[in-house]
């Protein structure tokens, strides 16, 4: 049994994928130095032809990876800041995601877009604190938000093996997590959720680093109510069957989601539950506010993120 | 099906292809007006020499990325005109199974990595495809076609830098037709097209884009250098579109060019310059008319795609898009 950190899990997933498959390459800013963590040591091990340090040209290197995919590679593009995804939305959504359909199925674009440190890292202010996974789910890009090191390993391996583009968000709030593991964790199929904790009264759908918060709150309220904690692991596609089955058991729903409220992932889960499940109480969502921009000062930053206290209140509200 | 179009090795073959492109886009204009083509098209009439001259400098396994004005490039690279017409008409057996239309025409089996609706978007794709192909030991070159409007897209300039840094075997072919939609190049481009390439250390030349052989010669030199590992090249082709930016323009009655200007360029029609002796030219023209007629007949016979398959090809496998209304 060994400790596996979240960052090390991503690093191992990249190294293992590169070892197994010569067509896997990594490119992005500061990937040789491994500044964000996941690419540490890969340049020394695999060389500059497979680990490409790129100039500050996000739009070009994102599409460069798409072109490389059209030549049979499986590139992984690392972004140092989640807000850079706004800059490359064109390349990921309008090019990578649409390429297969627009060509009538002729082209596969197996590119993984890796976003370590997504969401608030406290004190990085408005342009460095976004957690934009809902946008990609909305556009239909396969989108993973692993909560644990084991899932980070398994989802990144699956993302790289996928014949479609996948964005993998590693939440800043999860990257300090450690798991006990024996051997190599298994791949996690995209679209497979995970029940972290079973319960009978209410289903908490929690995303990314909020899974750990949800588990703490569920433990804290144990005795008062029995909460089931469901981690969808991928926000597109979603494991609707797992959610349906959970709601059949509990009949109540709270979604705990570090995205903006309007048109966010939580809204989608509530809508789907409303269409498909019979609920005993109106569902709740705990999210960032509508149109939130995270302010700089730590108290302000925290004030706009979903908090355990809000989750506690929401859980009690659906039980009334 | 109409059989394959001959390669572009001889002057007659190049003229034949230019004639095919001219007649193809003329037919596309008719089909757009009659409603056979949904949406609109961006005709490349007048620019045939760039497409044909460039593709004449390529080997079959070389590849191209194209633009929203891409019929000429796609045909010159060998696409079946019948399947391209079927695609424009939205038919199930079109080049892209009716999923792409004019702006996304692609045939990966022929190295056509796709026309692209976003100005300048193909440049980085071409650079990446070229880099990866060389890394995988393939002796191929990728052409990135784009217009003068793309010279003001940041991603294109970023792509020049990346291609030069990685010595990617890619040749950037700028079709400078003088207008970014309605904005004259002189009013949109500070400095010059070739100056931008030169700033990244990329050899750049300007050629007469109405002269198919001038284009072919310049592109062939750049392709040879790129294939030999010397890195990217840049060829600016001065050309002109005789028609509007897109087919909507006629209805809008936009006026941003003088008729004298259009006429002066029409007087330099690239087909006139490439035309072989009258007898041979006439016979090619008749042959092309026949190819196109059979292509059109075939395309119009093709079935329309089944609406139930509208979400097909969104993903490689696994989840199909969920319906937007309850099942």
Automatic annotation (TrEMBL), chain A:
It comes from the Bacteria. Residues 4-177 form the Transketolase-like pyrimidine-binding domain. Gene3D superfamilies: 3.40.50.920, 3.40.50.970. The keyword Oxidoreductase applies. GO terms for molecular function: magnesium ion binding; oxidoreductase activity. The keyword Ribosomal protein does not apply. Its cofactor is thiamine diphosphate. InterPro entries: THDP-binding (IPR029061), Transketo_C/PFOR_II (IPR009014), Transketolase-like_Pyr-bd (IPR005475), Transketolase_C (IPR033248). It comes from Streptomyces pluripotens. This is Alpha-ketoacid dehydrogenase subunit beta. Keywords: Oxidoreductase, Thiamine pyrophosphate.
From TrEMBL, chain B:
Pfam families: E1_dh. The keyword ATP-binding does not apply. GO terms for biological process: pyruvate decarboxylation to acetyl-CoA. One of its GO terms (molecular function) is magnesium ion binding. Its cofactor is thiamine diphosphate. Residues 299-327 are annotated as: Disordered. The keyword Ribosomal protein does not apply. InterPro entries: DH_E1, PDH_E1_Alpha_Subunit, THDP-binding. Residues 307-319 have a biased composition (Low complexity). Residues 15-273 form the Dehydrogenase E1 component domain. Transmembrane segments: none annotated. It comes from the Bacteria. Keywords: Oxidoreductase, Pyruvate, Thiamine pyrophosphate. This is Pyruvate dehydrogenase. It comes from Streptomyces pluripotens.
């Amino acid at each position: 049994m060994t400790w596996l950190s979240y960052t090390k899990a991503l690093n191992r997933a990249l190294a293992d994928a590169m070892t197994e498959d010569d067509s896997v390459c990594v490119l992005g800013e500061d990937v040789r130095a491994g500044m964000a963590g996941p690419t540490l040591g890969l340049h020394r091990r695999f060389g500059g032809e497979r680990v490409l340090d790129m100039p500050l040209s996000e739009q070009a290197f994102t599409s460069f990876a798409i072109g490389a995919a059209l030549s049979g590679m499986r590139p992984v593009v690392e972004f140092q800041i989640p807000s850079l995804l706004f800059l490359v939305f064109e390349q990921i959504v309008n090019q990578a995601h649409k390429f297969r359909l627009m060509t009538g199925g002729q082209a596969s674009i197996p590119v993984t877009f890796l976003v370590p440190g997504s969401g608030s890292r406290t004190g990085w202010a408005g342009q460095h604190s976004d957690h934009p996974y809902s946008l990609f789910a909305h556009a239909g890009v396969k989108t993973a938000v692993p909560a644990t090191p084991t899932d980070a390993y398994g989802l990144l391996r699956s993302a790289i093996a996928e014949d479609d583009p996948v964005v993998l968000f590693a939440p800043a709030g999860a990257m300090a997590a450690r798991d006990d593991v024996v051997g190599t964790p298994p791949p996690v199929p995209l679209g497979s959720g995970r029940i972290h904790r079973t319960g009978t009264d209410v289903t908490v759908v929690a995303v990314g680093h909020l899974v750990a918060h949800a588990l703490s709150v569920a433990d804290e309220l144990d005795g008062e109510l029995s909460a089931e904690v469901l981690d969808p692991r991928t926000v597109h596609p979603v494991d609707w069957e797992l959610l349906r089955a959970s709601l059949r058991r509990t009949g109540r729903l709270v979604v705990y989601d570090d995205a903006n409220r309007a048109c966010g992932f939580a809204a989608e889960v509530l809508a789907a539950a409303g269409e498909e499940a019979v609920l005993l109480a109106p569902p709740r969502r705990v999210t960032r506010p509508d149109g939130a921009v995270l302010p700089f000062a730590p108290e302000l930053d925290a004030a706009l993120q979903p908090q355990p206290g809000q989750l506690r209140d929401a859980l009690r509200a659906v039980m009334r | 099906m109409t059989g394959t179009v001959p390669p572009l090795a001889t002057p007659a073959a190049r003229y034949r292809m230019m004639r095919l492109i001219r007649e193809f886009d003329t037919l596309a204009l008719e089909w757009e007006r009659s409603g056979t083509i949904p949406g609109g098209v961006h005709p490349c009439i007048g620019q045939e020499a760039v497409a044909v001259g460039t593709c004449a400098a390529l080997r079959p396994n070389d590849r191209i990325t194209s633009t929203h004005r891409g019929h000429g490039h796609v045909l010159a690279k060998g696409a079946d005109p019948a399947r391209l017409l079927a695609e424009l008409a939205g038919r199930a057996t079109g080049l892209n199974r009716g999923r792409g239309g004019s702006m996304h025409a692609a045939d990966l089996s022929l190295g056509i990595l796709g026309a692209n609706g976003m100005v300048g978007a193909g440049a980085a794709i071409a650079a990446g495809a070229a880099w990866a192909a060389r890394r995988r030991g393939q002796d191929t070159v990728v052409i990135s076609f784009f217009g003068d409007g793309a010279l003001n897209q940041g991603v294109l300039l970023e792509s020049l830098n990346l291609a030069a840094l990685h010595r990617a075997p890619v040749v950037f072919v700028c079709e400078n037709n003088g207008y970014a939609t309605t904005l004259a190049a002189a009013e949109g481009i500070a400095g010059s097209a070739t100056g931008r390439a030169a700033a990244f250390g990329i050899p750049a030349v300007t050629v007469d884009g109405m002269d198919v052989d001038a284009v072919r010669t310049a592109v062939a030199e750049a392709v040879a250098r790129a294939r030999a590992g010397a890195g990217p090249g840049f060829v600016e082709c001065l050309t002109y579109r005789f028609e509007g930016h897109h087919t909507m323009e006629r209805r809008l009655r936009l006026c941003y060019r003088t008729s004298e200007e259009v006429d002066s360029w029409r007087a330099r029609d690239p087909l006139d310059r490439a035309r072989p002796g009258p007898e041979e030219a006439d016979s090619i023209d008749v042959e092309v008319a026949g190819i196109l007629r059979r292509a059109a007949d075939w395309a119009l016979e093709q079935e329309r795609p089944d609406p139930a398959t509208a979400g097909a090809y969104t993903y490689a496998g696994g989840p199909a898009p969920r319906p937007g209304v309850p099942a």
